[in-house]
Design a protein that fits this description.
- The two termini are about 30 Å apart.
- The protein has 8 helices and 6 strands; from the N terminus they run αβββαβααααββαα.
- The protein is about 40% helix and about 10% strand.
- It has a 6-stranded antiparallel sheet with strand order 3-2-1-4-6-5, with helices on both faces.
- The chain has one domain: L-fuculose-1-phosphate Aldolase (3-Layer(aba) Sandwich), CATH 3.40.225.10.
């Protein structure tokens, strides 16, 4: 648990190092599945003052079970994702500009080349609009449910991120560091896709390219790296 708390702090600071967050925007968390405890960034605390002792532990129902600060307001979204995707060990949320622009436009990010396909198989999906009832209810929990619904027929490990319409990106991974890595990749491919469509608004993806390049780096027959 001590190592996980440090890992969650490091993942949060990684978002700053990659320019994915400003002020107190965004958050990273990690889960101890053996102890059913999630450690998450405290709400409204500036990154430059945070220490590992500021990380907040919550149980799977969102009850704070230690520490001295309130957890991120996005905690209910993180908890829904941990429950729905048992393979993940870390979740990240940012308002990084390019990914958030796609989210605010309500558009999937199309897979237009190998840079995208190396980490995300197929388009990065955008969720549907939340209903008035959902917006007026448990907004953060409903956000998580909207993500899960969008992934009804998708593999969360092949597509380790999502755009929440009118909100911003969430990413995940086997660890908090991997979730932060996917957040940086998502922002980069969002930027590249934006520029590609500025140059050629008719640019389209290629399903064969998507599949071959994704599995070149992932899966049992991957041949990239050491």
């Amino acid at each position: 648990m001590h190592d996980l708390k440090h890992s969650v702090l490091d993942a949060n600071l990684e978002l700053v190092r990659h320019g994915l967050v400003i002020h107190t925007w965004g958050n990273a968390s990690g889960i101890d599945r053996d102890g059913s405890v999630v450690w998450i960034k405290p709400s409204g605390v500036p990154y430059h003052t945070m220490t590992k002792e500021d990380m907040v532990p919550v149980d799977m129902d969102g009850n704070v079970c230690g520490g001295h600060l309130k957890p991120s307001s996005d905690t209910p979204t993180h908890l829904v994702l941990y429950k729905a995707f048992p393979v993940i060990g870390g979740v990240v949320h940012t308002h990084s500009p390019y990914a958030t622009a796609w989210a605010q436009a309500g558009m999937d990010i199309p897979c237009l080349g190998t840079t995208h396909a190396d980490c995300f198989r197929g388009p990065v999906p955008c969720t549907a609009d939340l209903t008035e009832e959902q917006l007026n209810g448990e907004f953060e929990k409903e956000t998580g449910m909207a993500i899960v619904e969008r992934f009804r027929n998708l593999d969360p490990m092949h597509t380790p991120g999502v755009l929440v319409k009118h909100h911003g990106p969430f990413t995940w991974g086997r660890t908090p560091q991997e979730a932060a890595y996917h957040a940086s990749v998502l922002e980069e491919i969002a930027k590249i896709a934006f520029f590609t469509l500025q140059i050629n608004p008719s640019a389209t993806g290629n399903e064969l390219l998507e599949r071959i390049h994704f599995f070149r780096k992932h899966g049992p027959n991957a041949r990239y790296g050491q």
